[in-house]
Amino acid sequence: MKKVILVAGGTGNLGLRIVKALIANNAEVRVLARPNSDAQKVLLLEKLGAKVFKLDMNNVAEVTKACEGVSCVVSALAGLRETIIDTQKVLLDAAIKAGVKRFIPSDFSLDFTNLVEGKNRNLDLRREFYQYLDQTNIEATTIFNGPFADLLTDQMPMILFKFHKVLYWGNANQKMDFTTMDDTAAFTAKVAVDETSPRYLRIAGDQLNVKEIATIMTQISGKKHGLIKAGSVGFLNMMIKIGKTFAPAENDLYPAWQGMQYMRDMVEGRVDIAQHDNNRYPEIKWTSVKDVLSAHLSRI
């Protein structure tokens, strides 16, 4: 019998990938969407075989009805407090009322369990929600995957492709985890249908430092890539304060200072993971940073 999995945020970038991966794992997929969701994205989900429920995401009764008969709820919601706290609480409360056994929150981030509270707004919101989640009796699994490797090609200002340089802060030997969105989605789908998954799982498609990234770029581009140190971690913290003061953009999901907070957490060493869970599902073939960058260079 197919397991019924409900995905919230299925019209988003990661959410759509999770839906595809769930269908590939022979799951029956339901997707929650707001009434004003992109019609083309909803149509695509339906063509893939998912059943889309258009409803008020803040209405516990409506969400509870959609959760009936579901074995696991996967949240791929993205946003600030209104979404990560308020809407996810509605989703969680509805799942519990409907008798759903398992819940996967929308963490998909750096491992924030050892980070200092108050230093990263977006991760603080996730921490606040999981404190609420852990007060319930539903079985939950949080997936920590580090930053998405896909971001190295554009949104993460680390590789300066035009200048053949790799920008870094702090220690050039600090290892960082990178996982593609597709690999994260594939792993999440396995967890969703796995009734034995633990409270926390940590994955990384690749682990490397900026020196190794520069070496990879040199190998695949044929052009020597060097390093540029932007400053110390202390200087980065000062830049974050300046950014929050003069360009707060508090309603933006990823203002410049938020990206700096993620970078600071990556290079500070607090998110180092001693043991990953990559081998939990051996059928997953992990994508390396070299794979990601090679594919990107072939397109430009």
Automatic annotation (TrEMBL):
The keyword Metal-binding does not apply. InterPro entries: NAD(P)-bd_dom_sf, NmrA-like, NmrA/Isoflavone_reductase-like, PCBER-like. CDD domains: PCBER_SDR_a (cd05259). Residues 1-224 form the NmrA-like domain. Keywords: NADP, Oxidoreductase. The keyword Protein transport does not apply. GO terms for molecular function: oxidoreductase activity. Pfam families: NmrA. This is NAD-dependent epimerase/dehydratase family protein.
